[in-house]
Design brief:
The structure holds two protein chains of two kinds. Chain A has no helices and eleven strands. Chain A is an all-beta fold. Chain B has no helices and eleven strands. Classes of the chains: A mainly beta, B mainly beta.
């Protein structure tokens, strides 16, 4: 079993819809959880950075962490064509520097 | 301030040749990381630098891979005797310090081995 599982999609939604993405993980020691957005031929760009369970909101983006279920989610409200990208979940153990990534989920927002 | 800079952006080379990839981190970032992204796969950790020492090089896939960093600045990742399975995007990231700081990525070097 891979440390981090993420369904690669692709996921197509109409403009204005809510995009829902998620990852599951097996290592209960993970404490820090991130979502990165990656446009084609670009590096990953940090979107959300959370510690422990709960919700974090930043504009149209909401990150949720459920450590008891080893499950994290990213929601994008009022999706825009510019949100079309690959979304990567990443996580790490506290005090450890290596990030463990999911495979990434390709999202297409159709105008 | 500039972001993480990587060069070259693309590299095509023949199997068996050596390649050198360069990463220039964000100014003031003491921690530097190399990852590999193969087609259809998630990013794989290769090596981590704190300053110019590498406390974690456990992700390097073979002894053909090596990396160094001068001071708290530029790092080079060297792949010797390249193989076709080395074809990937090699991404560099940096952060203010090790531990709990978020990592910021460059746009990567797209390496193709013929």
């Amino acid at each position: 079993q891979k440390e981090v599982e993420q369904d690669p999609g692709p996921l197509s939604v109409p403009e204005g819809a809510i995009v829902s993405l998620n990852c599951t993980y097996s290592n209960s020691a993970f404490q820090y959880f991130m979502w990165y957005r990656q446009y084609s031929r670009k590096g990953p760009e940090l979107l959300m950075y959370t510690y422990s369970s709960g919700n974090k909101e930043d504009g149209r983006f909401t990150a949720q962490v459920d450590k008891s279920s080893k499950y994290i989610s990213l929601f994008i409200r009022d999706s825009q064509p510019s949100d079309s990208a690959t979304y990567l979940c990443a996580m790490r153990v506290g005090g450890n520097n290596r990030l463990a990534f999911g495979k990434g989920n390709q999202v297409v927002v159709i105008p | 301030g500039a972001g993480v800079s990587q060069s070259p952006s693309n590299k095509v080379t023949e199997k068996g040749k050596d390649v050198e990839l360069r990463c220039d981190p964000i100014s003031g970032h003491t921690a530097l990381y190399w990852y590999r992204q193969r087609l259809g796969q998630g990013l794989e950790f290769l090596i981590y630098f704190q300053g110019n020492s590498a406390p974690d090089k456990s992700g390097l896939p073979s002894d053909r891979f090596s990396a160094e960093r001068t001071g708290e600045s530029v790092s080079t990742l060297t792949i010797q005797r390249t193989q076709q399975e080395d074809s990937a995007v090699y991404l560099c990231a940096s952060s203010r310090a090790s531990g709990d700081q978020p990592q910021h990525f460059g746009d990567g070097t797209r390496l193709s081995i013929l």
